[in-house]
Known about the structure:
By secondary structure, the protein is α/β, with parallel strands linked by helices. The chain is about 45% helix and about 15% strand. It is built from nine helices and eight strands. Strand 3 (about 70) and strand 4 form a beta hairpin. The model has no long low-confidence stretch (mean pLDDT about 95). The structure holds 2'-deoxycytidine-5'-monophosphate (DC).
Amino acid sequence: MTRKKPVITIDGASGTGKGVVGQLVAKQLGWNLLDSGALYRVLALAAQKHGVSLENEPALQVLAEHLDVQFKATETGTAPEILLEGQNVTHDIRTEKMGNAASKVGALPSVRIALLSRQRAFREAPGLVTDGRDMGTVVFPDADLKIFLTATPEERARRRYTQLKEKGINVNLGSLALELAERDRRDQERSVAPLRPAVDAVCINTDHLTIDQVVEHIMLEYRKIFSISH
Length: 230
Ligand code: DC
């Protein structure tokens, strides 16, 4: 039997920096990247496009099973272009509205099952770095290295605010903090694949760390596991 390709999972709540950290780690290693949240966001956008209610689980399951989504790599390890039914939705899925809608569709058990094999298919040579909520607990329970990022709700709201502003998306810090709290609660309390660290995850509190320091910490853990001395 051939050995399974190596995987590093990076889980955490919104605003912990897992997206950009995942991109940088994948780039350093020259590995593939899966932003699993983008899949849930694309599904939420597809539901909106096709007039499917976020409460209609059977219809959302069918939509998830047939989701015509493509991740078009631009350069190894950098954020890919995301196409829904051939249309570029890379920016459309990044709004807080789509984040909240993604959290709602992500709470539905049959939707999660429908997206499982699609996520596992990203496990290609030479390896995979993936970020999300349940990458280490459910999707890749046999991952070589599992990271769980944390930060206080205030710090996460502040980071999201800056990130959205930079993308030209207008938001109010107070309502953003409330929406994040609501999304956290839903992601943590759902019955399937709730946001929580895997028992064998390395937890990193990112409150007082720069993105580069978090990446370096992960690379140290990676070198330990793969016995690389440099
Ligand atoms: O990581 P993100 O903010 O792009 O994710 C958006 C939502 O998608 C998140 O609030 C919950 C859902 N999600 C999930 O349920 N499971 C994942 N592995 C990733 C995201």
